[in-house]
User: What shape does this take?
Amino acid sequence: MQTTLLVEDASFFEKAIVKKLHEVGRHQIMVARSYAEAESCLNLPIGEPDLALVDLTLPDALNGEIVDLCRTWNIPTIVFTGRFDPKTRKKVLGKGVIDYVLKDSPGSLNYVAELIRKLAHNPKIGILVVDDAPIEREAISQIVSKHLYKVYQAQSTDEALKVLEEKKDIKLVLSDYFMPEKDGFTFLKTIRRIYSPEQVGVIGMSSYASSENRVRFLKYGAADFVDKNCSPEELLLRISQNLDYIYRIDELNNLAMRDALTGLYNRRFLLEQGPTAIKSWSEETHAKNWVALLDLDSFKEVNDKLGHDFGDVVLTSFARHLSVLGNENDIVARLGGDEFCVVFHDRTEEAVVDCLENLLTKLETSPVEHNGDEHNIRTSIGLASLQHGKLTKAMKEADKRLYAAKRTGRSQLVYSD
Assistant: This one.
């Protein structure tokens, strides 16, 4: 479990910070109100904290000694203080703290909470630093790593392209645009032919960039441009803001491709994005793929007799059953109304038939209950082989078999003519 060391001597701020920490999912908190209490907390046999949030001015340590204590224990540290002193601030930042935040407004506490939330996710995010100068490349990498990102390095554009291909967790590239082999402009154009701005963001960097080159870099698809001599805080803020943009677009795309009620993929995803994944499946020589179309039996009667609220419960319950059927690479989608689709990847016919017949059996013994009413979900299923990546053709064949199942008694699977 993540553990936070909170060192704060003001009761008001302590309560407010603890509340915020709980909101961002950090529930195990060691609270100290002095330097001595912090030392005692760190010596407890319950495990070291993975993050410290500290005030600089404590009753028994007035000059920021708490930062040195946390540094001795190698604990990533955020300073949250009301002490505004440029000299002290510069000195503390030089000790490698994650951030130095002033208690000067209600927004500052929200900033700290959001920073902590991101720090929990940052180790999963790859950032690639591209620079032919080893000293500058390492210096930039050290700054980026303060916020716990996974940092990769490349000394040339060719090496950078190889790293991008190998490391799928890279979301952002920091690239010098004066490079010895291919310049940054050529590199950027190559990236944009392969990755969209929503897949991989690019921030250009230079120590002596002209306004014209900055504009040119941005026009070629960079998300931002920074001076290498900017402060570490500015660089980290720009990285965070660019990642926010990428994840916001990803979130919107995900919402557009998901069914709002069930959380499954929707028809748009299946027909627009599905073929891309399925095309790669067709290149696997021995893989056998299948399309199943499922339609709930007598669903209109459920809505008419038990109400649309109950109908929604039936749909969400059925969606959960389908989610369990799918493996990691399978596609489970709600096409609309009470129609669903499962695209099975690399399974034998026997395995898929057993899976769907087990579903029919499980539905019989798993009634849906809502507000005192009870209903057994029943569904008809049509199954067809998906060959050569031709999804539409397979769906038409599965649809014919689905209606054959409806005509011959419902609540059954038809997988051959």
Q: What stands out?
A: The chain has three domains: 3-120, 125-256, 265-414.
